[in-house]
Amino acid sequence: MQEHISLLLVVIPLITALIVAVLPRGILPWASTLVATFICVVLASMQLWEVINGGVISYELGGWKPPWGIEYRIDTLNAFVALIVSGIAAITLPYALLSAEKEIPPHQIPLFYSAFLLCFTGLLGITQTGDIFNVFVFLEISSLSSYVLISLGSKRQALTSSYQYLIMGTLGATFFLIGVGFIYSQTGTLNMADLARILPEVTELKTIHTGFAFILIGLALKLALFPLHLWLPNAYTYAPSVITVFLSATATKVAVYVVIRILFYVMPSGFMATIPIGDFFVLLGIAGIIIMSVYAIYQSNVKRLLAYSSVAQIGYMVLGIGLASTAGVTATIIHLFNHALMKGALFMAVGAIIYRIGSCRMDNIHGLGRQMPWTFGAIVIGGLSLIGVPGTAGFISKWYLVLAAIEQSAWISVAAILTGSLLAVIYVGRLIEALYFKPATESQQNLKEAPILLLAPTWVLVFANIYFGLDTELTVGVSEQAAQALKAIVK
């Protein structure tokens, strides 16, 4: 079975999605999805272990040798991202049982789990494939199912948010596909390893530059890079809580992975030096960190506050990519993992509040910290990690990003990182103030804590934020190995 792990990671959730779609209402759709996700996290762990100890895995589909046939090509980078995606899915599913029942009509529950598995399939497929056109295919599978999942939100705004995401996502996919077409017209191949071999010979062609620009714009739309982020705040705010958790912790991370793969693996060495892509990414990263953090401060809806914070966190990742160094890419990969932990925990805690009171507006959560101490504790620790307090996972991300910036004497970038952390203190502080330091209304005086099925997954991520803030052997070790594997292209 080990030699087929990369294929099984895509096939298992795909087949389960088809089965779940025809299952009757009840526990079966949830249980089937839970089993599929736990199998995938075990397989992803085995795959990462095999890559770390045995090197790159190449899996030929249909018996056709690459580049003629489709190849799944796994190295440390995409094996690590696959583990992030499958791990978050496995932690999210126990949370989904009560959360989905509360926010989604009963007759749509099987559809919900089927769409969830299709989104999961698409995200895992992106991490496994070594074919740039198949990246587009899996990107669309995950995006189309995401539109459905967001539209299942309980408020009417969920439909308009889903439609807005559909328009922006379609534009992004179109740009990406046009770019792939331009590059294919000059190289005659779609295999990424083959492209990496051929592109140095045709790098100077304007068609290649144009195709690359189209691909980057398409991916910028998909990963919600400032200022192309407009779909994300509404999507995260009005989607069902469990979907906000899953998408915030996985979807944009996979898009960042694709950017790293194309910039530092597909494109030839020195390409970023010929075109000021790195400077452009640094500029957009800094702008995203500062502007989106300021926007977060003034939000009256907690989910929207955290959504703008997510755009700011994407700015940190893009800033690391823009530094175009092994240290910068290492910091970005670390933050892929750590941000999934912190934002997953925070959105889960907010979902627990919504489960109890049906709202997450600031003026409706006054004093809830006393009635829901475990939920409040999760928000505090997740918020400290988001700020980057020592002893949390968020500190490790920002520490390595600051080191990467100092390595290049990029003092403006260092200042932006520190400023972003200070702004995070303000918006996290507003949230803690509302939950604990303001009096609760009479109707909320006797609220109970959230159910254990919501709290247990939340605190798994909370403890992970603490553990990976103290023990960095896995996150830093794997991230450094992944970045060093790109050393032929990274400066």
Describe the structure.
The protein is mostly helical and 491 residues long. The protein has a domain at 276-491. Helix content is 77%, strand content 2%. It is built from 20 helices and two strands. The chain has helices spanning 5-21, 27-54, 76-103, 109-128, 132-151, 157-187, 192-202, 206-222, 231-238, 241-266, 271-274, 277-297, 302-322, 326-357, 368-371, 373-387, 393-407, 411-437, 452-470, 473-484; strands at residues 57-60, 71-74. A two-stranded antiparallel ribbon has the order 1-2. Helix 13 (302-322) runs antiparallel to helix 18 (411-437). The longest helix has 32 residues, at 326-357. 59% of the residues are buried. The mean pLDDT is 87.
In angstroms, what is the radius of gyration?
21 Å
Task: Describe the main β-sheet briefly.
Answer: 2 strands, antiparallel
The H/E string reads: HHEEHHHHHHHHHHHHHHHHHH
Helical segment tally?
20
Beta strands, count:
2
The outline comes out as globular
Helix content: over 70%
Oligomer: single chain
Measure the end-to-end span. 38 Å
Widest beta sheet: strand line-up: 1-2
Classify the beta-strand content into a percent band.
under 5%
Low-confidence stretches: none
Structural class: mainly alpha
The averaged pLDDT comes out at: 87
